[in-house]
Structure formats: structure tokens, C-alpha cells
């Protein structure tokens, strides 16, 4: 039985009740949000140590705010609710999130939450790649304290995050980028609704003369044990006019920052080649959105 040791199903209404449950069950307590990732663990028999499930639906954490300097998304906002953010459909800088939201099937979009997709720390998911390209950070709370973690520091390894036991992600913040900015996300998958073979999200900001001021290039889907930022490609882009040649050069550079793996979906060599191809496509897509 997958949850054979389950003793308690907590539905806390405030953070103190979360802390109480964590204090009682420690590492054997598991946060439950949309349950779409947890269900996969359960059917594989990977929850045999879990003694308490903490369902966080009654804690709120479902705000969705287009603020002056940022967009703030509560951890319990589902993908379907995020699609309702009006700015998502008009702002070029947020377009990578819009692109990535189109990937999961409707049933998953209705259940999966922003906090759950980040805490799962799965480099094969799509939303985390887009959120990292937009320089996202999370607010986390636990044991009466609160702290901010940049997404690059949240993702430690495959299925491993940097949260302390009992710490909850409460909110994701996406800062508004400077100047004229646009982003894009593209996924390569073997079949519809499959995990990514490779996915790429880029965000670029240019000044009045069209010179690239900021660039973020992020890759996921089997190119490392977490989503990977390509500092080498970003260096190629920054301070340059985004010409065809510069984009080609940046796309070729991503290979220096990734360690593609081989699995039943693709060989490492194919992932490496496609990482370059899809980086180029994503950069061209973002550039066309700028214009
Ligand atoms: C059939 C299927 C297709 C999918 N397709 C895609 C796809 O195309 N693209 C894509 O990006 N993803 C896809 N996914 C993955 C999906 O995005 C994740 O399963 C989902 O985001 C997890 O969120 P959840 O709310 O269901 O998390 P849960 O399953 O509830 O939890 C996930 C993990 O995070 C922890 N957790 C949850 N909330 C918090 C919190 N607030 N603070 C701290 N820890 C927390 C839980 O303890 C658990 O370890 C797919 C999944 C399935 C099952």
C-alpha cells in the first residue's frame, strides 16, 4: 500500500496548525496542494514513509496581483487560474509563461498549483523553466519566519528543493524587467502531453537603440539535474544588437552550460543539438514580440 503508514490528514486553517502538524510528524509530513505530482509518487509506492498529509487549500495563498514593480502569484493559484491574469495575454515580457501554460493537459491545469510545480523541483516541467527565465523568486514561511529564495537557489537537484522541513512556498514574485522586454518559451516533446525532451525559455530587454541590456536563457528537460541558466549564451547577447548572427552565436553557446542526458525519450547528442535549435527559435520568437 502506497500510503500504508498514513495516520493523519490535516487541513490547517492557519500557519500555526501547519507548524503543529510538522512538529508532530517531522520529515514524515507531506504538503498536499493540487496532488498531481504526489499522485504519481503514490502509484509508484514512494510515499511509504508518509504519516501525515497537510492539505493547504484552506490557507489562502491564492492571490494574483499585477503590481507596480512585479506580478505576485499565490502558491495555491492553479495553472487554470493563472491563465485568467489579464496582463498575461497582453504583456510581451510575460509571454514565456503564457507559452508554457499551453503545455499541460486541461485536467492538470485545473488542479496543478504554482507552488506545487516549483516545490517538486522537476527539471522536466515547463512552468519552472519559464519562471526562472523571468527571474522569479519565492516567499517561503515556516516556524513563524519568512524568507525569499531566488528560483535558482530553490532548485537543488532532481526532486530536491532547498526548503527546510515544514517550510511552505506562499508566493511567487516575477519582477517587471527594465526597458522594452519580451520573453518566449518553446518545448520539444515526443508526443502530446509528454515531459519535455528539451525546453527553453528566454527573456530579453533592449534599450531605445535596440541594444540588449538584459538576457536570460534557461533550459530544462533532461539537460541537467535541475533547470539550467546558460550564462555563456547570455554573455553573447548582452550589449549587442540582436542580429541573426548574434542569435546564432548565442544558441550555439548553450551547449557549454548543459549536461544533456540519454533516456528512452532521446539521446544526449539529440538533446544537445535540439537545445541549440530551440534556443534560437525562442530568441527569434522573443525578438518578434519586441517588435
Ligand atoms: C498527466 C500529467 C501531465 C503533465 N504535463 C505537464 C506539462 O505538460 N508541463 C508541466 O510543466 N507540467 C506537467 N505536469 C506536471 C505538473 O505541472 C505538476 O504535477 C504540478 O505542477 C504539481 O503541482 P501540484 O499542485 O499538483 O503539487 P502536489 O502534487 O500537491 O505537490 C508537489 C510537491 O510539492 C510540495 N508542495 C506543494 N505545494 C507546496 C507549497 N506551497 N510549499 C511547499 N511545498 C509544496 C508537495 O509536498 C510535493 O512534494 C504534468 C503532470 C501530469 C500528472
Provide structural commentary.
Strand 11 (180-189) and strand 12 form a beta hairpin. With 291 residues, the chain is α+β, with helices and mostly antiparallel strands. It is globular. Strands 4-5-10-6-7 form a five-stranded antiparallel beta sheet. Strands 11-12-13-14 form a four-stranded antiparallel beta sheet, with helices on both faces. The N and C termini lie far apart (56 Å). The protein has three domains: 8-54; 61-175, Uridine Diphospho-n-acetylenolpyruvylglucosamine Reductase, domain 3 (2-Layer Sandwich); 180-290, CO dehydrogenase flavoprotein, C-terminal domain (Enolase-like, domain 1), CATH 3.30.390. The chain has helices at residues 15-25, 36-43, 79-82, 95-101, 106-111, 114-119, 127-133, 151-154, 231-237, 244-253, 268-290, and strands at residues 8-10, 29-32, 52-55, 64-66, 70-74, 137-142, 145-150, 155-157, 160-161, 168-175, 180-189, 196-206, 212-220, 228-229. The protein is built from eleven helices and 14 strands. 32% of the residues lie in helices and 26% in strands. Residues 30-38, 40, 56, 75, 103-105, 108, 111-113, 115-117, 119-120, 125-127, 163, 168-169, 193 line the site of flavin-adenine dinucleotide.
Amino acid at each position: 500500500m502506497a500510503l500504508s503508514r498514513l495516520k493523519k490528514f490535516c487541513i490547517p486553517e492557519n500557519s500555526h496548525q501547519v507548524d503543529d502538524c510538522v512538529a508532530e510528524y517531522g520529515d514524515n509530513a507531506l504538503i498536499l496542494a493540487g496532488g498531481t505530482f504526489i499522485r504519481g509518487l503514490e502509484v509508484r509506492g514512494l510515499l511509504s514513509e508518509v504519516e501525515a498529509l497537510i492539505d493547504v487549500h484552506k490557507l489562502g495563498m491564492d492571490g494574483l496581483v499585477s503590481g507596480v514593480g512585479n506580478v505576485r502569484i499565490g502558491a495555491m493559484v492553479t495553472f487554470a487560474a493563472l491563465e485568467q491574469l489579464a496582463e498575461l495575454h497582453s504583456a510581451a515580457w510575460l509571454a514565456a509563461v503564457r507559452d508554457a501554460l499551453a503545455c499541460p493537459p486541461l485536467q492538470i491545469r485545473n488542479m496543478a498549483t504554482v507552488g506545487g510545480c516549483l516545490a517538486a523541483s522537476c527539471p522536466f516541467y515547463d512552468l519552472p523553466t519559464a519562471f526562472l527565465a523571468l527571474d522569479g523568486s519565492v516567499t517561503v514561511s515556516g516556524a513563524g519566519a519568512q524568507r525569499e529564495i531566488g528560483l535558482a537557489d530553490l532548485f537543488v537537484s532532481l526532486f530536491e528543493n532547498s526548503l527546510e522541513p515544514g517550510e511552505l512556498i506562499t508566493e511567487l514574485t516575477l519582477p517587471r524587467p527594465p526597458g522594452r522586454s519580451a520573453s518566449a518559451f518553446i518545448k520539444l516533446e515526443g508526443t502530446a502531453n509528454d515531459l519535455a525532451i528539451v525546453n527553453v525559455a528566454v527573456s530579453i530587454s533592449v534599450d531605445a537603440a535596440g541594444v540588449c541590456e538584459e538576457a536570460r536563457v534557461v533550459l530544462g528537460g533532461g539537460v541537467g539535474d535541475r533547470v539550467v541558466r546558460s550564462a555563456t549564451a547570455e554573455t553573447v547577447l548582452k550589449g549587442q544588437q540582436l542580429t541573426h548572427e548574434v542569435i546564432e552565436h548565442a544558441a550555439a553557446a548553450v551547449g557549454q552550460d548543459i549536461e544533456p542526458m540519454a533516456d528512452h525519450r532521446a539521446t544526449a547528442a539529440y538533446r544537445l543539438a535540439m537545445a541549440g535549435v530551440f534556443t534560437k527559435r525562442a530568441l527569434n520568437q522573443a525578438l518578434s514580440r519586441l517588435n
